[in-house]
Each structure stands twice: as structure tokens, then as C-alpha cells.
Design goal:
- The protein has 2 helices and 3 strands, in the order βαββα.
- The protein has a 3-stranded antiparallel β-sheet, covered by helices on one side.
- The chain starts with 13 loop residues before the first strand and ends with a helix.
- The longest helix has 18 residues, at 31-48.
- Helix 1 (31-48) packs across helix 2 (77-88).
- The chain is α+β, with helices and mostly antiparallel strands.
- Helices cover 33% and strands 25% of the residues.
- It has a single domain (14-88), classed as Transposase IS200-like (Alpha-Beta Plaits), CATH 3.30.70.1290.
């Protein structure tokens, strides 16, 4: 078993995040789905106080480059909020 990864979060740290759609399905291939994701990302950015340096939306995955501005909250809270918001838009 691989050793547990150490995660270091802090104000001013730059984070590169990649995540995939469920089973790598191309759920973001339509213009509408990509626009909804970008709106949700903007809502999450405003709510959780991170700066978005850049992002790439591919049909089956997303890359984010973000800067933590506020003190970090509960781990995974922003990601869970994005998922909940996406589900409410019926992607």
C-alpha cells in the first residue's frame, strides 16, 4: 500500500486540480453543459473565496489552476458544492 499523501493547504498556495466526469463519460461535450459548469465554477469561486488563474474544460475532464485566498475550509467542501450545483442543473 502506498503511503498516505500529505496535503498542505494554505493562503496563497497555488493548486492544480484535475478531475474527471463520472466513468469518464463525455458529459461536458455540449456548449450548454460547459457553460453551466463555468457558471457553477464562478458561483463556487465567489462562495469559497479562491482566485481562478485558469481552467480547461474537456468533454470528459477538467483542469483548474487556482489560488487559495481565504483560509481553507473543510476539505472537499468546494468540490462537493460544485457537484451538488451541477446535479441541480441536470447535466
Amino acid at each position: 500500500m502506498a503511503p498516505k499523501l500529505v496535503r498542505i493547504h494554505g493562503r496563497g498556495h497555488l493548486h492544480f486540480i484535475t478531475f474527471t466526469c463520472y466513468r469518464r463519460l463525455p458529459l461536458l461535450r455540449s456548449f450548454r453543459a460547459r457553460n453551466i459548469f463555468v457558471e457553477i465554477l464562478d458561483d463556487a469561486r465567489n462562495r469559497y473565496g479562491f482566485s481562478l488563474v485558469g481552467y480547461v474544460v474537456m468533454p470528459d475532464h477538467i483542469h483548474l489552476l487556482m489560488l487559495a485566498v481565504k483560509a481553507p475550509r473543510e476539505e472537499g467542501a468546494a468540490r462537493r458544492r460544485i457537484i451538488v450545483m451541477a446535479e441541480s442543473h441536470d447535466l
